[in-house]
Design brief:
Layout (H helix, E strand, L loop, with lengths): L3 H21 L5 H9 L1 E2 L2 E5 L3 H13 L2 H17 L3 H25 L21 H21 L2 H24 L5 H29 L3
Antiparallel strand pairs: 1-2
Helix pairs in contact: 1-8, 3-7, 4-5, 4-6, 5-6, 5-8, 6-7, 6-8, 7-8
């Protein structure tokens, strides 16, 4: 029976590939519209559900998945690994995240899906819709950082704790994009799926290979 660490990224890869092919072929999903509207006031779809303070909290959460937010998380993790003597791991983290950023940009340009137009956007957008860059890059960044910290710590409980926290943050960042009306749910699902595949490969191959080159 396949282990979860193999089965999960394999399924995620199939989900991303299926979504990408359907979107490129011009397919739309009625569930996308239904899910976006769940976060909106039925009497006034321009307004997301919840009080004003909650709107601000969601915008704060989405900012964690922005380029600036992820850059500082990645910078902190990279410097911490470097200063702790895991210099190859630090380099591997930078390589993985830089390549993911290029891949995200290339996929958005190639697929060129339009942003949702059924509700007013509660945040500014500058790129195409699929895959969600916030969902993809936050998954790559946070899951890879968690994996690399787990590898460096050599302690299973620390690795599990870091991974759980990363999963929670990635989930909330992705949901915030739907709540703000700037992404279709399928954009976020596609970003999550590709991020799981990318970080799984980075952790299982690049992370362990780089760690083997660092002093014990």
């Amino acid at each position: 029976m396949p282990q979860p660490r193999i089965l999960v990224p394999a399924v995620a890869g199939l989900v991303f590939l299926g979504l990408a092919l359907l979107i490129v072929s011009g397919r739309s999903f009625s569930l996308d519209t239904t899910l976006i509207m769940l976060f909106r006031d039925a009497a006034n779809p321009a307004v997301p559900l919840g009080p004003a303070w909650f709107h601000e909290a969601v915008r704060d959460m989405t900012a964690l998945g922005s380029f600036v937010g992820l850059f500082f998380m990645a910078l902190t993790a990279t410097l911490a690994l470097w200063l702790c003597g895991y210099r190859h791991l630090a380099i591997g983290l930078v390589v993985s995240l830089a390549a993911a950023f290029l891949a995200s940009t290339g996929l958005k340009i190639a697929i060129a899906r339009e942003r949702p137009d059924i509700v007013e956007h509660a945040a500014l957008t500058f790129t195409a819709s699929f895959p969600s860059g916030h969902a993809f890059l936050s998954a790559v960044t946070l899951l890879t950082i968690a994996g690399f910290v787990g590898i460096a710590s050599r302690k299973a409980d620390i690795a599990r704790f870091c991974m759980v926290m990363a999963v929670v943050m990635v989930g909330l960042i992705g949901l915030s994009r739907i709540y703000l009306g700037v992404h279709w749910p399928s954009d976020v699902l596609g970003g999550w799926s590709l991020g799981i595949v990318w970080s799984s490969v980075a952790n299982a191959w690049l992370g362990r290979k780089m760690a083997a080159s660092d002093p014990a």
